[in-house]
Specification:
The chain is mainly α. Helix content is about 85%, strand content about 0%.
């Protein structure tokens, strides 16, 4: 484009020389060529002055980009901040972009959900082995356990027990305890004799003691069997009331809450607690690595299904989409409000690191083609204006 603009200037100069001192219609062409040269040279000067000093002459207000790149970068940064990266503009764009609906359509595709799970599994599988036992143990002992010691957990435990009782989730555990207690007592009759026998009166004959022990054994087994098989047994209701009272005391009774917190502190500060939790973490990590590395594992299949279900919900549940879009716009607005200037400062920081000539070369490379059209237009418009002025002069 530089060559085209220069060629037009040379053409205008040739026409000017050829038509010089010619009358008639040639005078009109000569005037047009003269004005075209003036327009071409003026616009050449204007375009060149942006990036360098024309002909190397120290003319004021030239080489604007290399000499004022820092202030130009700051102005560009301010312009982008005020007009593009403002909280209102970005938040409104997020609200109207229907991000949740688009995400839902994308996630509903099984291939996309499977890809997300595969990439996540690959990342987690690479990160988990790098978490050494020493690092985990240091975190558990230095941060996790002290935090739990200071945090009141009694109300949380009480609320948990209350939920368990209300849902009846403890019944299965109680049934298991009854079954195990019945089996243990059935197999350990002699142990019961060792416990009860020494408490019999000295004057009692041994055959009487054996009868009493056998009766106690049978009655205990019968009672456990009755509680085990009868879901409405008074003992079961008593356990429910006991747990419900415990849940209430853990949340509202200061004495119970204090005893629980004291027990919690003793447990968490026990020397073996840190190593025990580390061992639990190691077992969980091994199991998790095995599950995520297996493409057919139940964990990965459930994760894919969960993502697909989420995608369908995004498509079908308008209220959910509205909530997600609102939260997303608020989150983006917060990021822009808090870190917007730091984000946009990349512009000024990058340009300030450039050398002046390098900055001029980079900018000219991107916009120089359009700037050469200014020279071309200046040549053409100059010729037309020169022709018009000469025509008016002749008429007047």
């Amino acid at each position: 484009m530089r060559s085209v603009a220069l060629a037009l200037l040379v053409l205008a100069a040739v026409i000017y020389v050829v038509t010089l001192h010619h009358g008639g219609g040639w005078a009109y062409l000569n005037a047009a060529a003269e004005a075209a040269m003036v327009g071409a040279l003026a616009d050449w000067f204007a375009v060149t002055a942006l990036f360098r000093r024309p002909l190397g002459l120290p003319i004021p207000h030239t080489a604007i980009v290399p000499t004022r790149k820092d202030s130009l970068a700051e102005s560009l940064e301010q312009f982008v901040t005020e007009n593009f990266l403002s909280e209102e503009v970005v938040a409104e764009k997020m609200r109207t972009a229907q991000v949740s609906r688009r995400v839902g359509e994308w996630l509903a595709d099984g291939n996309h959900a499977e890809r997300i799970v595969a990439e996540g599994a690959r990342t987690i599988g690479a990160a988990l082995p790098k978490l050494g036992d020493d690092d985990v143990a240091a975190f558990v002992r230095g941060s996790l356990l002290p935090r739990f010691v200071k945090e009141p957990l009694s109300p949380i435990a009480g609320h948990f027990v209350q939920s368990v009782v209300e849902d009846g989730a403890h019944h299965a555990l109680f049934d298991l305890l009854l079954v195990e207690a019945y089996d243990w007592l059935a197999d350990n009759r002699e142990l019961l004799a060792d416990v009860v026998g020494p408490r019999a009166p000295r004057w009692s004959p041994q055959w009487v003691d054996r009868m009493v022990i056998d009766r106690i054994h049978r009655e205990a087994l019968a009672w456990l069997a009755d509680v085990r098989d009868n879901q409405s047994h008074p003992a079961r209701r008593a356990v429910d009331r006991l747990l419900a009272q415990l849940a209430d005391d853990l949340q509202h009774d200061p004495e119970t809450m204090e005893r629980f917190e004291s027990w919690k502190a003793r447990m968490l500060t026990h020397p073996d607690m840190g190593s025990s939790l580390t061992a639990v973490w190691d077992a969980m990590r091994t199991a998790l690595i095995g599950a995520i590395n297996d493409p057919d594992s139940a964990l990965r299949i459930r994760a894919i299904k969960a993502l697909q279900d989420l995608g369908l919900r995004f498509q079908e549940d308008e209220s959910l989409r509205d909530r997600v879009d609102t939260r997303a716009s608020e989150a983006v607005g917060y990021v822009v409000r808090t870190y917007g200037r730091e984000i946009v400062s990349v512009i000024s920081d990058t340009i300030e690191r450039w050398d002046g000539r390098e900055a001029a070369a980079r900018i000219e490379l991107h916009v120089g083609r359009d700037l050469q059209f200014i020279r071309i237009n200046g040549t053409v418009v100059g010729a037309l204006v020169g022709l018009l002025i000469h025509t008016l002069t002749q008429v007047l």
